[in-house]
Amino acid sequence: MDAKNSNFSVNYEAIFKGGSAILMVLGTDTPKFTIMAVSDLFLIATMRTREQVVGKGIFEAFPPNPADPQSQKEKLDVLNSLDRVIKFHKQDNLPLQKYDIKTSDSKGDGFETRYWSPVHFPILDDEGKLIHIVQKVEDVTELFSLKNREMEKTEINKKLQDKTGKMELELLLRAQEVKDANVKLMDLNEVLEKKSTELEIFNDKLKELDRLKTDFFANISHEFRTPLTLILGPLEELLARNDPSYRQPVQVVYKNALRLLKLVNSLLNFSKIEAGRMNAVFELTDMANLTVDLASNFRSAIERAGLTYVVEYQPVPSSVYVDHELWEKIVINLISNAFKFTLKGSIRVSLKPSKDFVEFSVTDTGSGISEEEIPRLFQRFYRIPKSIGRTIEGTGIGLALVQELVTLHGGKVEVTSKIGEGSTFTVKLPYGKEHLPKEQIAVNKVQRDMHEATFLDYFDWIPQQEIAKIELNSTKPLIVLADDNKDMRDYAQRILQQYYRVIAVSDGSKALEAIREYNPVLAVSDIMMPDMNGIELLRALREDERFQSLPVILFSARTEETRGSEIGLGANDYLTKPFSAKELLSRVRTQILLHEIRNKALHQVTLANKELEAFSYSVSHDLRAPLRHIASFSQILIEDYADKLDDQGRDYIKRVLASTIRMSRLIDDLLNLSRITRHNISNNKVDLSALARKITEDYKANNPSSALEANIEEGIVVQGDAGLLEIVLDNLFGNALKFSSTRPRPKVSFGSKVKNGITYYFIKDNGVGFDMAYKNKLFGTFERLHSQEQFPGNGIGLATVQRIIQRHGGHIFAESKVEEGATFYFSIIPSDQT
To answer: Is the pTM of this model over 0.85?
Structure first.
């Protein structure tokens, strides 16, 4: 209980003097440190009276023992400890000290040995200024005296002596720890002071940057409003004439100009809030009527989208003050957000009173928000990545503005959400007006025009019948166009329809569906779209063998610097918004023309390849008969006539035989290569693990001296042609074993790995590897990265492997480092997915 509010007072002096601690109060007058007060126990422990010590310096009242050289060091330790308290305003502990006390006059002029454990505490005033230092000590002399006394050799005395020794050791260890800790604390305090200074400088720079950013938003927003006024005024005049010949394009321009004005107003509101210049006018409000009127603006659009829309309210008995214009922004932002991210189910708007607040909530059954994202929801310009909604458009300032406006009303915003189940946003505003600035409370009703609900046409978010009937008899080329912005989609479609048939859709998944069904000559897509964006659409097309060569033009509002990454992913061209009709038509015509040229060239190459394959098959077949004769007669010469030939003759015959065998293998490989393109692919279960195991076991049997280590993943079964896939593994394992044969302990591995959602099978070795700069040469016919002398081969094996994999709808590539081995990856797509 506070003494000021009670009928009795507390005698702090009596408590201090008569307490159970050895205490001394010192002044801050370093190095004297005048003694201001002492407790009764302190006087008993030091054999002094108050008159002998109070008013004197600490070392004047208690001088060091001149007969003990260690006493000067102990004095210095005490002084350093007191100085640290003055500097850091923090408690400072000293290690165990031997500091002798001068005896009183009645006992002579000698010193009495004492051992102390002192602690110094700072006493601060209300402003944090140091006014006193309190020294608290424990007299541990008795512990040390027990050790030196003559003890009777009894069991009790022995136990007491052991205990004393342990206590002494513990005290000494504690003393050293305290001393080390004090040194570290001093070092850390110095570092902390330095970092604190750096942090203050950094914070000052951040504040300056934030101020500059706020000023920039304010200036740019003001500058935008003037040209927007000059745009909107004439547009309104044109629309008032209601001329059908130009009304539709003018309506599009007008609607987007209003949308731009809304964005400008939001930025301007932020700058006003941060600068403290938001001129809110709070008036007594019928919250139920105002909120229900605002919420009703959404009913038609929400119900047309197939959602259930419920608006419920309870009368609010207590008075609530709000700025009508700012409350409108809060309500519209929260309901439009729910509509944007709710594709099915319902949206429920509720207004009800609670004990201390009026609560306005919007609950949806939309895509929901993860727990990790909720803390960032109200950050300016932050947008949740990969969120599923009706459109990807937005600036990321709506919820940030809601929070700022609710805070201006003295309220708060709360969010609860679960992924896939929906979200609830709740705004709580306190009753009354005591929490609001008095100068901003309206005495009379304020007249306002509230038209912000018309700033965005929410009907554009409702999916329309997008894929219209295709003109089957038309000779115009067919284009698929994807953009989630209806106005942009209609604009591009209107331009292209003059010369082409156009299927216009609102996202990448619908575009992919249309492309697969109608097989267009060109795809034109925006990058930023919901569900499947333009990059994902492009990737899906390039992974589909049927559409790998389909020309794709991407356009986006992003800057030119991002163009390289999209082109690198396989886009044929890139248009940056805004673009003209002439530029769009020019790019489209160019890509369609290039596509036609590529198709003609490809057709000619295909015919030439077929002729070449037929020729290769014929020539290879004709060469085999004479080669068999050469091989047979060479073998007869070696076996039956070797003794009639000299060494050089035998060497020549062996060379002929070896070359004949190599030539025969080359012809066999050429025949296999030509057969692959004509071979009918069977579709059966193939145990790749079993094939891999058989290949490695055969190698070990034929090369018993090899220390081959083979790791085969079990259970890898695919759908495909067993004979062709055996050729694939024979070639890939043959390469792995060949190029790792120079290692003391060759290693090969076979397994599977998922990359970008596709299962790849790999064969890895620890061989000589290759330079990735030559990776494009790997699968070419007769291409070799090593000499015949180093590693024999004909350069056809990997070309054969690639054709087999392609015929299985898959893809093959390799990764390697010189002298670190190589890994070959291949995929196999089942025939029902190709």
So the answer is: no
